[in-house]
Write a structure and sequence with these properties.
Layout (H helix, E strand, L loop, with lengths): L4 E6 L3 H13 L4 E7 L3 H11 L3 E2 L3 H6 L5 E4 L3 H13 L3 E5 L6 H14 L3 E4 L6 H12 L1 H4 L2 E11 L11 H4 L3 H16 L5 E10 L3 E2 L4 E2 L4 E8 L4 E10 L5 E8 L3 E4 L3 E3 L5 E3 L9 H15 L7 H16 L1 E5 L3
Parallel strand pairs: 1-2, 1-4, 2-3, 4-5, 5-6, 7-12, 8-17
Antiparallel strand pairs: 7-13, 8-11, 9-10, 11-12, 13-14, 14-15, 15-16
Helix pairs in contact: 4-5, 5-11, 9-11
The structure holds nicotinamide-adenine-dinucleotide.
Length: about 325
């Protein structure tokens, strides 16, 4: 059996360009890029020319009809993922899809149901889970369970720069599905769920901070600028998450603080304060692979070696539903320009 998976890329924006394609090229004993499709054909042509690989398809159907392709890698904006996943599994393709996997939990339930007959591997790329810092922290939490005491609360921040985007893919809700709450929230909630086994939720409160909508010739902005989510898990652990597209500095403010009875630990720098109030750092062991490479190696192992996915579709359903409910239950505060 052939070891290399032939891949077709759907959506040829920044993320495919800066992360996915360089990864596939590094992992050339596992993946071969067969071609590109983008709604904007110039983007597909650009990537073909830049990396000197693959064909350009003029429609999604022509990519999906290509029998050479085993796997599609969906990097289009979020609201297109649902239809593109369904079409792909119907055409016998395995699917990797960027976060947020889908906007509506009902759509993910439909995918799960349909895939009972198609039996394809569908994997949502929750890249934060593959970071060294995450792997080291997960082990630390397991090994030090007794020393840490009870988890009391989690405070997370994701204040990031205004996204560079193509065709309003982050700022037009009809394309993005929402603002930083869904974009950054899928990273943070995905990571918290992964570390603490997707705890049941008791109570959600959300505030969305909204500026005036903008609709100019090439720019649409109708998402929240910032969001504050406060929730209580059934085991009484609190989770607070602040996120925005307000960051102007070079470095993003993207971190999580875990508060235990006797310890507090921050991710991703893995500093901790122990029960004697000593400041320490968990040693981050080096790993030769980047998180983006590791997630693709993992998907290759799912298909070729029948490995269990690190994140299942029911885990993704948890993330999607939590974000969906957070929007549904949100209070909107209008802020001035
Ligand atoms: N894991 C991460 O850290 C990370 C980081 C950035 C983006 N992403 C995710 O990757 C995806 C793409 O983000 P990006 O930063 O590349 O956005 P982008 O704005 O740079 O590019 C989006 C591309 O999709 C194309 N497109 C739009 N509609 C399409 C359709 N119906 N079919 C095919 N192509 C279509 C656009 O023309 C554009 O080329 C999003 O889901 C985003 O959340 C993940």
């Amino acid at each position: 059996m052939r070891n290399i998976l032939n891949i077709g890329i759907i959506g040829c924006g920044k993320h495919a360009d800066n992360f996915h394609i360089p990864s596939f090229l590094r992992l050339k004993n596992k993946y071969r890029i067969i071609g590109f499709y983008d709604l904007n054909i110039n983007r597909a042509n650009y990537l073909k020319k830049k990396y000197k690989v693959g064909n350009v398809y003029s429609s999604l159907n022509s990519l999906l009809k290509d029998k050479l392709i085993d796997v599609v890698d969906i990097c289009s904006p979020p609201t297109f993922h649902y239809n593109q996943i369904l079409k792909s599994i119907k055409k016998d393709k395995h699917v990797m899809v960027e976060k947020p996997m889908v906007i509506k939990s009902l759509n993910l339930k439909k995918i799960i149901k349909k895939n009972k007959s198609y039996k394809k591997n569908i994997f949502c790329l929750q890249q934060q889970n593959f970071r060294n810092e995450t792997e080291v922290l997960k082990k630390f939490l397991k090994n030090k369970e007794k020393k840490l005491g009870r988890l009391l609360g989690i405070k997370a921040k994701a204040h990031v720069n205004f996204p560079k985007q193509i065709n309003n893919s982050f700022t037009d809700k009809s394309i993005s599905g929402g603002g930083p709450l869904i974009d950054q929230g899928s990273h943070i909630i995905g990571l918290v769920g992964h570390l603490f086994n997707y705890p049941k939720i008791k109570n959600i409160k959300t505030i969305l901070f909204k500026k005036k909508n903008i609709k100019k010739k090439n720019f649409v902005f109708n998402i929240e600028t910032a969001a504050r989510l406060k929730l209580i898990f059934e085991n009484k652990i609190y989770f607070e998450f602040d996120t925005s597209y307000l960051k102007k500095k070079k470095k993003n403010d993207f971190n999580i603080n875990f508060l235990f009875d006797k310890f507090s630990i921050t991710w991703p720098n893995l500093n901790y304060i122990d029960h004697q109030k000593r400041e320490k750092k968990i040693k981050i062991t080096k790993n030769k692979f980047l998180a983006s490479d590791k997630q693709f190696i993992h998907f290759h192992n799912i298909i070729k070696k029948n490995h269990k996915p690190l994140v299942s579709l029911s885990n993704i359903l948890y993330i999607v539903k939590l974000i969906e409910d957070s929007y549904k239950l949100s209070k909107v505060i209008k802020i001035n320009e």
